[in-house]
Amino acid sequence: SEAEAARAEAEAILLRARKDAERLLGAASAQAQEATSHAEQLRSSTTAETDQARQQTAELNRTAEQRLAEAETRLRESRLEAEKVLAEAKEAAAKQLAAAESQNEQRTRTAKSEIARLVGEATKSADTLKEEAEQALADARAEAERLVAEATEKAGTAAAEDAAAQLAKAARSAEEVLTKASEDARSTTKAASEEAERIRREAEAEADR
């Protein structure tokens, strides 16, 4: 029936948005963990320095690890929030359709318009959460790079410089992954918005008949 087809379309759009959000958040989390690993390598490479330099480096590394831990926490919270938003939208759409199926044709058309609205809201929410995840990773990467630069300047050892170079390479890799994930997110969000708009137009056209 038209109601079942509309429900299937809404579920497909929500599923694509959720998978895209999970992929982006997963990539961000992996890069944050890699940055933490390089920070650990930097700390272990400065054991031959003076006590003062070691203390300064340890403090910088603790700060870097704290910033990265905070970023990972925000990423986890964003993932949970994305899943919650999508689940609520799907549940609301299903309830609306169930109620409409027991009513007349006009109620069904109204339900389809409501589905389009819910899908649009879910898409916007997922897009916002993706942007928050991107910003969280960018902040963590920038903070790690700054702290490593400070540690390298204070320590002045070849080992620290090598660790800094490795972290810079990891940051570039993270940026490439994030750029690709962002492009995928924009593509999926655009497709979801277009699909929601198509459903809305169909519902309006049927209502005018």
Automatic annotation (TrEMBL):
Residue numbers spanned by region Disordered? 26-76, 90-113, 178-209
Regions of compositional bias (Polar residues) in chain numbering: 30-60
Q: Where is the composition biased (Basic and acidic residues)?
A: 62-76, 104-113
Name the source's superkingdom: Bacteria
List the PANTHER family.
SLR0848 PROTEIN (PTHR38010)
- According to UniProt, the name of this protein is M protein
